[in-house]
Amino acid sequence: GTLDGITPTNRFSNPFPDGFIRGTGSAQGLSTLLGQNVTGMDRSRSNPYSQQWNLNLQRTLPGNFLMDVAVAGSRGLHLFGNLNPNQMPNQALSTGDAIRELVPNPFLGLITTGALSGARVARGQLLRPYPHFNAVTIGNLSYGASTYHSLQAKLERRFSQGVSLLFSYTLSKLIDDVGATTTGFPGEQFAGDNIQDQNNRRNERSTASYDAPHFLAMNGVWELPFGKGKSMLSDKGAVTWILGNWQLNSIATFRSGVPLSLTMASNTLFNFGGPQRPNWSNGNAGVIEGRIAKKITRYFDSTAFTAPAPYTFGTVPRFLSPLRGPGVANLDVSIFKNFPVKDRVSVQFRAEAFNIANRAEFGLPNTQIGSAAAGVITTQANSARDIQFALKLIF
Fold it and tell me: What is the spatial distance between Cα 14 and Cα 9, in angstroms, rounded to a whole number?
């Protein structure tokens, strides 16, 4: 770090001017890290595993087409997730403002660092299961489960006469109850995922953060019918050399947006747990119809959700399936030309265009209800059109 963006805080000649804090090992026993944040691991955790099933039917159709239809699913068990066992008991929320009152600190003199070293502490702190610690985290506890069901269809024209086509579509649903830590695959993003009530994880079961009910992919290859050995201009000298051995390729991808996770901009639970969610009672998910490019300043109607009363949990599920971020619609194309040099040696010219339509895939909107920016999109998730050229020696 630096003091002012330029001057380093510490130098290699004296990297620890305030001394080096060494691990205490077991010397302090149960007094280790008193008043601080602690992280541990359940030594008796189970190994995650999955059960998978599928039924697949294939049939060859006229025109050298292959149709493939499958029903597939899986069940994930003992999935890893982080757990906070130091959330205040839910029954204590009924006392209202009393949990925020400052009371004499019973740990005065025993805890010498941090917020718990003062003469007074909030009453809610003393109602926590482990009041002598702040945040307590059990990492990768195997409490989670997931369920996935899908209908998968594929229509493929196997390569013949210079043409190959593939259409694939998946209709699916994925449900889980695990607070994920991932932020998405490269080029994609998922909504934030947090557990609201650590003491009642049954209510955390919802659509998963990376659920995408509709996915369509199409790709094709076409070797142009010009050149040596082709049906047209097979032996025209220079004309054949220029127009022959060209190949067109394309990949189009369409995918539903991921579900959004709504939280309150101001957390009034005061229970040392997860974020507070808004209430959802009228069935309106706040969806606004229309093109995304025209509603980036109001992607969804935040007035469809209300703030829960202080010291109460919101009713919105962990992920709201009807309310989803922008989807994906992308087209990549390329054109290749092979220049034969001699037997088994050729040079390939490649021109490739990614996101050729230069379509902006907008990022996820702000999902903090109560914030002035709720429903506003401020980021772009994909890259602009990218065109590249290359020469490839094949031997």
Answer: 10
C-alpha neighbours within 13 Å on the C-beta side of residue 298: 8
Report, as ranges of residue numbers, the positions in the chain whose pLDDT lies below 70. Answer: 3, 21, 179-188, 227-241
Residue with tokens 């020469």: 391
pLDDT given at position 178: 85
Q: Regarding beta strands 345-354 and 259-260, do their DSSP bridges make them parallel or antiparallel, or are they unpaired?
A: unpaired
| Per-residue pLDDT tens digits for 5-49 | 777 878 888 888 777 767 788 888 888 889 989 999 888 889 999
* Of 96, 85, 37, the residue nearest 268 (C-alpha): 96
Rounded-to-integer distance, Cα 29 and Cα 44, Å: 21
Q: Any alpha helices (H) in the chain, and if so which ranges?
A: 123-126, 238-243
How much is the pLDDT for 197? 94
The residues, any chain, with a CB within 8 Å of residue 133's CB and separated by 6 or more, are: 33, 34, 35, 36, 37, 38, 86
Nearest 5°: phi and psi at 77? -130, 150
Q: By the 8 A CB rule, do 357 and 254 touch?
A: no
pTM for this prediction: 0.83
The runs of H, that is alpha helices, within 174-229 are none
Contacts for 287 with CB less than 8 Å, ≥ 6 apart: 300, 301, 322, 323
Under 8 Å CB-to-CB from 237, ≥6 apart: which residues?
A: none
Contacts of 44 (CB under 8 A, 6+ apart): none
